Amino acid sequence: MVTASETLLSAISKYEVVIGLEVHVQLLTATKAFCACSTKFGAPPNTNVCPVCLGLPGALPVLNKRAVEFATLAALALNCEIRETSIFARKNYFYPDLPKGYQISQYDRPIAEHGHINIKVNGESKRIGITRLHMEEDAGKSLHDGFPDSDKNTYIDLNRSGVPLVEIVSEPDMRTPDEAHEYLTRLKEIILYTGVSDCNMEEGSLRCDANISVRPWGQKEFGTKAEVKNVNSFRFIKQALEYEIERQVELIESGGKVAQETRLYNSSEGKTYSMRSKEQAHDYRYFPEPDLRPLVVDATWQSEIKKTMPELPEARRTRLVSDYGITEQDAGVLTMTRSRADQFEEAAKHSKNPKRVANLVQGELMGRLKAKGIDMEQSPISMKGVAVSADLVEANAISGKMLKDFYDIAFERGKDFPIVYAEEGSPKQSTDTGALEKIIDEAIAANPSQLAQYRGGKKTVAAFFVGQVMKASKGQFSPAVVNELVGKKLDG
Hints:
The protein has 492 residues and is of the alpha+beta class. It has three domains: 4-304, no CATH class; 313-423, no CATH class; 433-491, Arc Repressor Mutant, subunit A, CATH 1.10.10. It has helices at residues 4-14, 65-77, 177-194, 234-253, 299-306, 313-324, 328-334, 338-349, 354-372, 383-394, 400-413, 417-423, 433-445, 448-455, 462-472, 479-491, and strands at 15-26, 81-82, 85-86, 88-92, 102-106, 112-121, 124-137, 141-145, 153-157, 164-170, 206-216, 226-231, 261-266, 271-277, 287-288, 295-296. The strands form four sheets. It has a nine-stranded mixed β-sheet. Strands 5-4-15 form a three-stranded antiparallel β-sheet, with no helix packed on it. Strands 3-16 form a two-stranded antiparallel sheet. The N and C termini lie far apart (61 Å).
């Protein structure tokens, strides 16, 4: 039986895949792009509206300065060149939830161009180009509802109409679904660090359209592309791309032709379906927005915006490795969000061994979080709590076994480590070497073959005896003391 992955590998072996992504990011402003209506999510339908975002005759747009600052900051974080003078345009098309009959966007003179993101897939680094970043307003939302014994109904909610967006268009530089997934992960990470958006895909703050085509290896001309529209998770985007690769290759191999069209992904079936033929730029009849003057972001304003730029993830990972002696893998986990990195650094500054803190996050905390199905931000044990536990182990106040028990209790009770440690009476490790020597003697007597191996020159067997003693003593003795006494006994 041929699996889906085998089919995909077979397709990629014959054809080169070309992927470009268009990502819409909602800017985290308090008000809309061209009016003073609230952008707050979850308000009752059609309550955050006014004559401007309803498209009523005579209503004029006024550009939101904060949206410009956020768009510029995002562009700088993505290594884009800022165009000093950009132009807003009308993009004309009909949707029931687009009250004006056009969308205010940018076309031939966007606010930023020529950026890039660095990604790493299977240990190999690659630079993905960003063609442009432009500003635009969002459309409203169509809500489809069906009731038994009635026709399907569509309701229009215009609360989202006019919400400020940036559209980030990549170069067609990605060649696998894995590269696309990594690009989106890094893009979201960077945008979150800047604070210009919450990137909440469930609320529509980040949406992605994927353009994909295939061509025989060695062919210079691009194949005909299909666009997969509005996929609401990175995992589904990857699955949709995998399906499209197989579909397009199978179609070409059977003598057919790929149609340039927009398709929708059905996640429950794992398939894409044709939605409509793909529009060209001339279909939108772009022309300059007559009610808005050219947008000028001069060097002085750009400099002021750049001063608000935080340290970005890639640079921070490099610095954490250098400053705290942690691994690149540790740094990757600890910098997934800005708040997590901030918490780690605050804890590391007051810890005797920051590397042990990082190791405990990876080795003890992440596994329990995964088992519970929660993110680190919902962890009962804070980064400060991890640092406290690391210092206790460092000082031989508790053993590794005790630490694991405390972590289990903390997750059971939903409390931080220092609270659980205090509640359990802050137990100390035993210093009764007489009792320890007895346990060691019993371990050696119970394992004569391992003792013979050790005395025959296989010194690594000492670790076996240390493990046996720690297990028998339930971690009540310091590992350093156990190691020392085990060595003396074995050599005696």
